[in-house]
Amino acid sequence: MPDSAASIPGFCRDCLKEQTSGARRCLACGSPRLLRHPELRSLSLAHIDCDAFYASVEKRDNPELADKPVIIGGGKRGVVSTACYIARINGVRSAMPMFKALEACPQAVVIKPDMEKYSRVTREVRAMMLELTPLVQPLSIDEAFLDLSGTERLHHDAPARTLARFARRIEQEVGITVSVGLSYCKFLAKVASDLQKPRGFSVIGQAEAVDFLKERPVTLIWGVGKGFATTLERDGIRTIGQLQTMEEADLMRRYGTMGQRLYRLSRGLDERTVETNGEAKSVSSETTFNADISRPEELIAHLRRLSEQVALRLRKSALAGQTVVLKLKTADFKSRTRNRRLDSPTRLADRIFRTGLRLLEKEVDGTKYRLIGIGVSDLSDPARADPPDLVDPLATRRAAAEDAINKLRDKFGKTSVETGYTFGHRRRDR
After folding, report:
1. Secondary structure class of 97 (helix, strand, coil)
2. Is 343 one of the annotated binding-site residues?
3. Which helix (H) or strand (E) holds 298?
4. 165 in the same domain as 307
């Protein structure tokens, strides 16, 4: 570190002591995790990403897994939900087919996702985020934007050090790690959080933005996927620096509204603010089979079990949904999605299942399926959910029975009580 580094604002990420010299290690605690940046005291927009979230939670709960490659996913024919960094070094990636992941890392420990547990950890982390600022915008179960502008008086510190203290607290109290990206806009905050994972803290300032982006691939820009990247490459555009030389009108003439996004983000121009209304739009559950299924009774058993999982998540989230969505994927990977809007919102497994069953009956024609899923959208407050059904008087009795079953499961475990639809199928699934 050159002597000039002494004049750049910085602190130690472990002990949080200010750094007033150009030393490579903290003079107070000896840690090499020093953070220095010319704009460190003026930036306040952050993106926080939990490191290999599902795998980290499983390693936290089972210390024997600490030094082992861990893959979170379901069955040999499923896909990888996430993988720890040891498994990633061996070539495992999210969304990779499980059989390919096990070819790349045969010694990996495979764990089926436990979404209820991960959701509990998410709520814990999010509550800590809201202690920093009310401006929290969740993007998914394991990442969120935070705007800490104006919080210096509250925390008696600059946002950068507040975020470092937060990351340390998560590690100590929750038992997982996070990576932080700090910048002046959402686009670059998200880019920054991915630069030094795991346990990273990266800063991209406004003065350096254009030069930082110049050599990066166009796929770094939000919304540029493989298909659009192929279109850009066909037009001779591979790097963001090439976009920086082009006029906005020309880009819009070629690519429409996406051209305007290319022009602005390539120059680090992003005026999007942190929105706090990023609630979930749907609640769903799905499963990939170990072998393709065409028999109706097997598909129905899975549909019932998944409906119960969706109902449980709705209850835990204090939500109800009015549109039931059935998802199927055929043996040749073609997706089928069917939906039906109910007269009133529901949070009952019985109504979700019976609606899904009517949709499924039209698709059971001998086709072999590799995946089935059920979910609800049009989410709302549960106060209006499941009014008495005057057309089907037995619906009230089924709802009461479901409530009794839920109480038994809460007390004795999820598999303590089964319906006739699922009885015996859990053993065959295992």
Report:
1. strand
2. no
3. helix 296-317
4. no
Options 143, 286, 308, 402, the catalytic residue: 143
User: Do both 248 and 195 map to the same domain?
Assistant: no
CB atoms within 10 A of CB 331: 15
Give Cα separations from 377 to 58, 283, 341 (angstroms).
29, 7, 9
Does 143 qualify as catalytic in the annotation?
Answer: yes
One domain, residues 374 and 351:
yes
Query: Is 49 among the annotated ligand-binding positions?
Result: yes
pLDDT digits 0-9 by tens, 258-280? 899 999 999 999 999 998 865 56
Tens digit of each residue's pLDDT (9 = 90 or more) over 317-344: 778 899 999 999 998 888 899 999 998 8
CATH number at residue 51: 3.30.70.270
Confirm whether 272 is domain-assigned: no
Please state the domain count of the chain: 4
380 vs 108, more confident: 108
Tell me if 182 is assigned to some domain: yes
Domain range enclosing 229? 217-266
Place of tokens 């990939």: 288
8 vs 159, higher pLDDT: 159
What predicted TM-score, i.e. pTM, was given to this entire model?
0.69
236 contacts 229 by C-beta, under 8 angstroms: no
| CA 400 to mean position of chain CA atoms | 35
